[in-house]
Amino acid sequence: MNFFFLIKEGIVSLRRARLTALISVITICLSLTLIGVFLLAGQNVKDIFVRFYKQVEIEVFLEPSLSDRQIKDLKKKIEDGPQVSEVKYISRQQALEEFQKTFGEDLSNVLSENPLPASFRIVLKPSYSAPSVVEDFAEKTRKLAGVQEVLYQKEIITFIQKYFSLTILFIGFLAIILFIIITILVFNTIRLTIHARTDIIQIMRLVGATNFFIKSPFIIEGIIQGIFGGFLAWGLLSLLSKFVQSIIYPELVVASHLYLLTIGLGIAFGWIGSYLSVNKYLRY
Amino acid sequence: MIEFFNVSVKSKSKYILKDIRFKINKGEFIYLIGKTGAGKTTLLRLIYMDLFPTTGNALVDKYSSSNIKMRQIPYLRRKVGVIFQDFKLLPDRNVYENVAFALRVIGAGRREIKSRVLSVLTHVGLNHKRYEMTASLSGGEKQRVAIARALINEPFILLADEPTGNLDPEASRDIVQLLERINKSGTAVCMATHNYELIRLAPHRTVVLENGLVRRDIDPQNLHKL
User: Fold this and answer.
1) Record: contact A2-B104, CB cut-off 8 A
2) Under DSSP, is residue A148 helix (H, G, I), strand (E, B) or coil?
3) pLDDT computed for residue A5 by the predictor
4) Looking at the complex, does the CB of residue B149 fall below 8 Å from at least one CB of chain A?
């Protein structure tokens, strides 16, 4: 088996059909860029929601009679829960200072004693953010010894949860539709490039080339197109995200695996597309 | 070597070939004649198994159309050379590469390719034009390249489907003479044509096809009855 012939033939075919190959590469590049933009948008929308969740705190007010040791033990107990992302202790003094900062009024002028209790401010992990889960957590925490009251913004959590689910569903639906359209588009472009060279397939069949030998140069060609398309999409996505970061949305997060995914998808598109297309012409 | 046992080929509701019983012996030269649509090309396609009988059985070398496996077909095709009226050459490659292509796609080594291509190009009288692009060749020369490619794997039979259809009379005579030379070296030749002039010039066994049936099978001695 002359492996180098197959590689060479794949590269030579690309050179011979420059225009169709170029169209194919551009189609793959634009399709991958579109998928990349989508993934980027999805990731960042998710991040925005996670940031919202982090702002939602559950406030646990403590009995005034608790000793430092008991507070420490209680904090440990809450932190050990699988739902908990962060627990912050606010002493009575800190609560007083915060009150003063927020309302601009010094309570010690009015009252002889600090009326504010010490508390824990708890942030839950985003995966435990469903309203029912938060309610359940609040209920269980309320029953812990030393806990006086548990408060949280139930309406905000319900609101975020509702829109988060809707947005994710919407993005997922669009992503599936987009992926199907792009797959058909890319496969058809590759099919056209192969269709333009049915003569060479016919000659190969005639002189007794095996199916593997006939397919290989086309598949190699498809993979090369996919790699080129993938790298171009990488570049385009990188430019786009830099533009968005500098002009529109500086918080834009670009996961590094997005670029690798682009190349991987490019190769997969090129490979599967050319495999299926050349198969169509391979009856004996 | 090649034998058809009651072979019929049906397309939709129409018979293209009907109940063909026919044999080509080793090293034989045979003409297939008949009008357009008589079934000449179909018969040739049955031999290189580009098509299978609707009923009956075609036996080609050790392969039978009724039980050949798909993966065996490329190996059969390496033993059957085929040339066409439109040459089917790769226009973007030179003469050498067109012929070498048939060896490359079956995985032959570089040295073997070089020696065999040069030898077969000498045989068809085109060694001096091996670096020319096929687009710049005359029709007769293009057909010689196609013949060289068909012969490169040393087939036991060369199938020629109207090989002189696009050629002037002189080039046609040259091609038939070349086919006769190839035949003399032991390769059977089966040529579909409707050029009666050529048959008279180089008489061989002639099978007349008409509406998918073998009407006559004439020995060279009786060709005057044609």
Assistant:
1) yes
2) strand
3) 75
4) yes
**Alpha-carbon distances, residue A248 vs A41, A167, A236, A244, A254 (angstroms):** 13, 21, 17, 5, 14
**Contact between residue B32 and residue B44 where contact means Cβ atoms under 8 Å apart:** yes
Chain A residue with Cα closest to B110:
A2
Domain that holds residue A109: 57-152
Beta carbons of A199 and B90 less than 8 Å apart: yes
B193, B31 in Cβ contact below 8 A?
Answer: yes
N-terminal to C-terminal alpha carbon distance within chain B? 26
Q: CB-based contact (8 Å) between B88 and chain A?
A: yes
Q: Chain A: give the shortest CA distance to residue B45, in Å.
A: 11
Q: Do B77 and A16 touch (CB under 8 A)?
A: no
CB contact under 8 A, B75 and A208: yes
Q: The domain spanning residue A120 has which CATH number?
A: 3.30.70.3040
Tell me if A213 and B105 make a contact (CB, 8 A cut-off): yes
Ranges of residues in chain A whose predicted pLDDT is under 50? none
Asked which of A152, A177, A207 is the last residue of a domain, the reply is: A152
Of the options 3.30.70.260, 3.30.450.40, 3.40.50.360, 3.40.50.300, the CATH number for the domain spanning B2-79+155-225 = 3.40.50.300
pLDDT digit string (tens) for B60-113? Answer: 999 999 999 999 999 999 999 999 999 999 888 899 999 998 998 888 888 999
**Closest residue of A to B74, CA-based?**
A208
CA R_g for chain A: 30
Nearest to B106 among A199, A208, A211 (CB): A208
Per-residue confidence (pLDDT) for residue A284, from 0 to 100: 54
pLDDT tens across A190-227, in order? 888 788 788 888 888 898 888 888 888 889 888 999 99
Q: Which ipTM was obtained for this model?
A: 0.86
**What is residue B172's predicted lDDT score, i.e. its pLDDT?**
94
Residues A165, A269 within the same domain:
yes
